[in-house]
């Protein structure tokens, strides 16, 4: 039997995707997605501690796969990416470093410490609503530069997938 205190317990509300009770509104917490859409089903809970949600698989050995990577070739490609200006989006003073720093800053700026969501780790800037936020204007050009300047997609190479020519 639950009491009204159990309903407002953050541990209980943080784990049950079907929680229909009230939510503790602490001062200074800000407006959360849950405040706007209180009946939203929390499907993210289905992925907690699951090996099936790991795209690399259980047997993936990061150290072994990284040792296969052509590190110096990657560095060379990144240097070219930063310094070779493109006609469709000219580099500022011969370098795209500022644009990439801005993209990283905006990606990291989406992280919310209150619930651990957001951040740069999942590449969410590519998708709505982040890609249409006024703060992120022109960051689509930075993402396009990664594909325009590469002859290989390094992540595919790192994961042992076939390498297809780009461009």
UniProtKB/TrEMBL annotation:
Any one GO molecular-function label of the UniProt entry: catalase activity
EC number in record: 1.11.1.21, 1.11.1.6
Keywords: Heme, Iron, Metal-binding, Oxidoreductase, Peroxidase
Annotated spans, Disordered: 1-33
Name this protein carries in UniProt: Peroxidase/catalase HPI
Cofactor: heme b
Source organism, top-level taxon: Bacteria
Cited PROSITE patterns: PEROXIDASE_2
GO term, biological process aspect, one: cellular response to hydrogen peroxide
GO cellular component term of the entry, any: cytosol
The organism of origin for this protein: Escherichia coli
Gene expressing this chain: katG_1
Keyword Oxidoreductase set for record: yes
């Amino acid at each position: 039997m639950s009491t009204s205190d159990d309903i407002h317990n953050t541990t209980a509300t943080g784990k049950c995707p079907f929680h229909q009770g009230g939510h503790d509104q602490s001062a200074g917490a800000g407006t959360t997605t849950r405040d706007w859409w209180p009946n939203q089903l929390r499907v993210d809970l289905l992925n907690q501690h699951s090996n099936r949600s790991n795209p690399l698989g259980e047997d993936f050995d990061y150290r072994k796969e990284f040792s296969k990577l052509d590190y110096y070739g990657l560095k060379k490609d990144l240097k070219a990416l930063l310094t070779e200006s493109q006609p469709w989006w000219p580099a500022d003073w011969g370098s795209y470093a500022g644009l990439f720093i801005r993209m990283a800053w905006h990606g990291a700026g989406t992280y919310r410490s209150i619930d651990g969501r957001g951040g740069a780790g999942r590449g969410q800037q590519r998708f709505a609503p982040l890609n249409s936020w006024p703060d992120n204007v022109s960051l689509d050009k930075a993402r396009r530069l990664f594909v325009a300047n590469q002859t290989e997609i390094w992540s595919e190479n790192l994961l042992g997938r076939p390498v297809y020519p780009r461009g």
